[in-house]
Amino acid sequence: MMVSFRNPILKTKRAKIFIMKKALKWIGIILLIAFIIIQFFPKNYPENQPVTENDIITHHNVSDDIASILKTSCYDCHSNQTTYPWYSKIAPVSFLLKHDIEEGRGELNFSEWGTYDVMDKIDKLDELVEETQEGKMPLPIYTFMHGHAKLSDSQKEQIEVWANSLMEEIISE
């Protein structure tokens, strides 16, 4: 079958493709401009603060093994000692990081552990065990970018044993 350029159906298809390509080009340009503009918005990250006696590691004389697990897998979102990676300066990722850190510190802040009352400590430790055992913490998006932060089954078990022991210690005080 011979294709004719005079066929109105082919002209209409070509016109639609041409219009779609042009529209996609303009959408791409607009998105690129928007991406560049949002880089100038201030990031306003939660500030890091010095370690105090309220930090859980200092407050309860946590073993080096558990301290290492907490610092590697939890502290970036759940303490006042966040290590901001290079991509934290690039919007819109920076906005997501800021949100996750503020939310994480609001739920559990290991740097402010000593300020929690007994029931809050018990609840937070219980939730820590539950969240880590179910694989909800650290967040999958975090472990995707920080593979070393993913908890092994052995580390999850260590956290569970430590948290249960600490709950008993807190109750007996």
Could you explain how this protein is built, in words?
- The protein has helices at residues 8-38, 56-59, 64-73, 75-78, 93-107, 118-133, 140-145, 153-172.
- The chain has 8 helices and no strands.
- By secondary structure, the chain is mostly helical.
- The chain folds into 2 domains: 1-38; 56-172, no CATH class.
- 61% of the residues lie in helices and 0% in strands.
- The mean pLDDT is 87.
Query: What structural category do the secondary elements indicate?
Result: mainly alpha
Write the H/E string, N to C.
HHHHHHHH
Unreliably modeled segments = none
The number of helical elements comes to 8
> How much of the sequence is in beta strands?
under 5%
> How many domain modules?
2
Mean pLDDT: 87
Gap from first CA to last CA: 90 Å
Helix content: 55-70%
Principal-axis shape equals elongated
**Could you tell me the number of beta strands?**
0
What brief labels describe this structure?
2 domains; mainly alpha; 173 residues; 61% helix
Compact description:
The protein has 173 residues and is an all-alpha fold.
Secondary structure elements and pairings:
Elements: H1 8-38, H2 56-59, H3 64-73, H4 75-78, H5 93-107, H6 118-133, H7 140-145, H8 153-172
Helix pairs in contact: 6-8
